[in-house]
């Protein structure tokens, strides 16, 4: 530890406590780490730096600076200061010439070399998500021990939903981008490209499993036929990992039949529900595999795109990145430049800046706003020398599970809401039992009668609501007769844009940029589909919201106990997935085969019209409208039935207690005291849940 001080301070190195841990933010830590004898006199005059040290109760002198630097390094190793934030801060400081390049390289390389084992950190302490999940799971266990059969299934469902959620990352890149080596480094284990694991020509899904396995999934006969292969019916099979290459190596004929491979592996990085989707190269010649990759990307929380630093910003890369950004992955796109160990620090900075500028230029040339790239995160890494790998891993973990993760927050909020509802139900039942025990027979009977009235009210509400739901289904005639005309008018604009590009290339006698055309076509249609789907969601959600309000009025306060599906999320999940591979292929063939511009325009009109017709969006959306409404109706009926059954059980309990004869008063008092204790415990549980 002291060696880094000696490298920075030389003969001015002072004796400091090597176990000291500093309490600074990552930005403050970056500033302190960059202080050297060369800039010390200049920086200590800054009021902002004096403020940083004052808040840490330290004087601003050489001893405190060196103590702070050691403390920061220890805090980074203990994961008390975000390494990613420190490195980003150092990068910004170097850009502003506060520290020279040699000093920046020395410090950043040392920080990158620190051995941080994120997988062995107590996750409950490392991230708010895991801390809250751990607490809520403890509460779940306590509630289960109450042994209320009426809520047992709800408890199981709540636990499963929170603990079995998946966080997915799709890894992409052209061939030789370094996907296998980067993933192996990220996982701290040689999984991909090892002797018993296939090359990544097939799409591979890495998921956590205590018992390791490999599942080989095959293309359907129809899919094989579309690839001009013999259409065979092949069942997916579980095989030993050691035998996987028999199915995936190109030398084996059966490899052509393999659609994807699922690897269940006992790896800590996967243990928290992270699934890694290792996709084939972007330059894969098999169209169906590109479609499969696109589908997985659309389902993933993040896309990690790898580019060889020596060959970055290729046309294929740029087309992929622009299309990804245009389709809404700006906050979920991570770009990593690999193999940086082969470049100098100056070259790395140049390549990084060149890549960022190339993306913005490509966006602009394709007619998109350059700001789409603003949220994209960039890393420079070397799997061989483990440079930037810990930084990337930390960023992923923070993005998935940190306090700013929308998905993690939603999981916790839903878990909290359901546990609060269950706790309230248990508390209400306990209070009713106490009332029956502490009241006379007539009062207990009155309580049982009031429960029967509640049951009747819910039954009447259910009949009324069922009638309203039937009307909802009748109203659900999703009519989109103007949609095809709208889409055709949009396709005409896209056709004109394509023709314009073809004319320009012809007039200038330059090669037509096919990749750029693909982006233009996809983004043009996607823009129209976004509006199209938004109108659909608004129409369906409006009808279902209307039914929900009627339900709320009928049930009053009891409505709070219902757990209904999130219809908007259901629609988003089941919206038709649009794939453009075949469309782009048809357009490319038309351009290649037809040199006459007028005839080409007519051909493109036919291709685009056929594309729209074959999407069959009207029928697909009508089917979706029906399915999501049925989902809503089924859920309401199930919930109402559960409420009735719960009240019937509660009524039976009250009647049993009211008729109970106690041998002595102490037995009754003990039972009341036990109920009081559980009611108090319920209140404590609610307080704990609210704090998560």
UniProtKB/TrEMBL annotation:
<feature type="coiled-coil region">
    <location>
        <begin position="633"/>
        <end position="688"/>
    </location>
</feature>
<feature type="coiled-coil region">
    <location>
        <begin position="441"/>
        <end position="486"/>
    </location>
</feature>
<keyword id="KW-0175">Coiled coil</keyword>
<feature type="domain" description="Dynamin N-terminal">
    <location>
        <begin position="169"/>
        <end position="329"/>
    </location>
</feature>
<dbReference type="InterPro" id="IPR027417">
    <property type="entry name" value="P-loop_NTPase"/>
</dbReference>
<keyword id="KW-0342">GTP-binding</keyword>
<keyword id="KW-0547">Nucleotide-binding</keyword>
<protein>
    <submittedName>
        <fullName>Dynamin family protein</fullName>
    </submittedName>
</protein>
<keyword id="KW-0378">Hydrolase</keyword>
<dbReference type="Pfam" id="PF00350">
    <property type="entry name" value="Dynamin_N"/>
</dbReference>
<dbReference type="InterPro" id="IPR027094">
    <property type="entry name" value="Mitofusin_fam"/>
</dbReference>
<dbReference type="InterPro" id="IPR045063">
    <property type="entry name" value="Dynamin_N"/>
</dbReference>
<keyword id="KW-0472">Membrane</keyword>
